[in-house]
Specification:
Layout lengths: L6 E5 L4 H12 L3 E6 L2 H13 L3 E6 L5 H15 L4 E4 L16 H29 L2 E6 L16 H19 L4 E7 L14 H9 L10 H12 L9 E4 L8
Parallel strand pairs: 1-2, 1-4, 2-3, 4-5, 5-6, 6-7
Protein name: SDR family oxidoreductase
Pfam families: adh_short_C2
Keywords: Oxidoreductase
């Protein structure tokens, strides 16, 4: 198994993407530490993993609270011997569909502040034990936020949030590489399964995601989990400071 014996912390582990990544990690032998603000959501994922023979721990942790995150990471390192993989998958609370000139400042800046704050806090916390052990993988989600603006539809501050995290990812990779720590991003272009069937404007968003692809499909939750496993494993030992493109050709590198 690709992640046998490793400890992976996933913030937002009770969500759709966080849960998919956690299941994939556990399937490959990792002990997953699911963090989030809702115990019932974390328990649902953990129970599913355990029922399949995997290892899962849960903790109610707010990824925007530095003291909580630091204490939990230290506990994992102390009780389980290592912190090998970290993945921040919390929702940033973006507001979409409202033109920028009509959007409230608070709505525009919320995803930017949330994404930057949570990634800074979680990365800082896990970097310390990873540096001590001389290895580790820090993953982010969302890619470069799109190289071109989206016409006729506004995604508010979400795109800016992704670009900010991408800049942080590149800098972290440069600073932490000498300690054996890799930092990488998964760029999907959007996962349709995360959109509720009754989500306002779902058909428009689905066409925005699938329409530009070369393969006529978007990445699935399963695709995200499989790529996350690869990036977290030694098979990706030379990949750092990179965004892995699984947009099905929507973005051509």
């Amino acid at each position: 198994m690709l992640l046998d014996g490793r400890n992976a912390i996933i913030w937002g582990g009770g969500g759709a993407i966080g849960g998919a990544v956690a299941r994939a990690f556990a399937r490959e032998g990792a002990r997953v530490h699911l963090c989030g603000r809702t115990q019932t959501a974390l328990d649902a994922v953990a129970d599913d993993i355990r029922a399949s023979g995997g290892l899962a721990e849960t903790a109610v942790v707010d990824a925007l609270d530095e003291a909580q995150v630091t204490a939990h990471v230290q506990q994992v390192a102390r009780d389980f011997g290592s912190v090998d993989v970290a993945f921040d998958l919390i929702s940033v609370g973006d507001v979409q569909g409202t033109p920028m000139v009509e959007m409230a400042l608070a709505d525009y800046e919320q995803p930017i502040v949330t994404a930057v704050r949570s990634f800074f806090i979680t990365s800082k916390a896990v970097a310390r034990p990873m540096m001590a052990q001389g290895r580790g993988v820090i993953l982010t989600f969302g890619g470069d936020g799109g190289r071109d603006p989206i016409r006729h539809y506004s995604i508010g501050g979400f795109q800016v949030a992704l670009q900010a995290v991408d800049a942080m990812r590149r800098q972290l990779a440069a600073e932490l590489g000498e300690h054996g720590i890799r930092v990488a991003t998964i760029h999907t272009g959007g996962v349709l399964e995360t959109l509720p069937r009754d989500f306002p404007g779902r058909e428009v968003i689905a066409e925005m995601i699938v329409g530009p692809t070369m393969l006529g499909r978007a990445a699935t939750l399963g695709d995200v989990g499989d790529v996350a496993v690869f990036l977290a494993s030694d098979k990706a030992a030379t990949i750092t400071a990179a965004a892995i493109n699984i947009t099905a050709g929507a973005v051509a590198d």
